[in-house]
Amino acid sequence: MQPGDAVAEGNPLRDGVAGILSAVPCSRLQVAFVPETATLQVRGHLPEDGLRSPVLAALQAQMGADITVSDQMRLLPRPQCGALAGISDVGLPQSTDQITNPLLVGNDAHARVLDYSGGERLFFDLTAPDYPAYVYVDYFDAGGAVLHLSPNELVPLAETAPKSALRVGAKEAGDPGLQINVGPPYGQEIAVAFAASHPLYEGLRPLSEPAEPYLEFLRSQVAAARAEHADFKGEWVYFLITTHAP
Q: Which of 102, 110, 115, 205 is the most buried (most CB within 10 A)?
C-alpha cells in the first residue's frame, strides 16, 4: 500500500448510497444511519410521489436485508424544488452538521417542516447563527415569486446577537411583522433564511418580486461583500411550509 490508497478507493457502500441519492432529479435527499436500531433513515424531499418506491428499493438493495430503510421523505414539487438550485448558488454555504457527523450521506435538506391550516397566521421562530449577523427571510411560492418576510417596511434590517431568538411574521394582530393569513391555493412551499455578517444591500426590496432576478441580485451582493470584507461569513437554511384547507 502507498499513502493515499485507502482514500482513493473510497467506501463502496457509502459511494453507492450517495450515487442513488444524487440520481433523483429536483430533489434533496440525505440518509442517516442509526446504529442502535440498524436503521437507515431517508430524509429530504422528492418532486413526485412516483419516485418514492424506486428510491427505497434501490437503497434497500444497497444496504442488504439486515438494515431497515425508514422512509421520511416529503414531496416538494416543481418549481419550488428547482428554486433551491438558485438559492444554493447565491454563494453562501448551507447551515449543516454534516461535517461533524460521518453517519450522514447526501445533500442537507430542510431544517424542519412548518404546517398551517387555512385562516391561520403564518409565523415561525428562528435562532440566529453563532456570530453577529443580519438575517434575511424569504418565502418562495409556487408561482415563481418571492415574498420578503424580513426585512421589509414593517421589519427593519438589524444586526442580531449570536444565537438569539427571532420571530418571523406576526402571531397576534398587534405583533410587529407582516400579518399573513394562510389561504388557497394550498400546497408545499419553502421559506429561506440567509444570514450574513455584513449587510448585503441598502434599502428595501419590493415586498414581492420574481424569484429568479432577486437571486441573481443576491448572488452579486454576496460576491461584493466577500470582496469588500475579509472577515465576511454567512449561511442559509430552508424550511418546508405545508398549507392545507381548514
A: 110
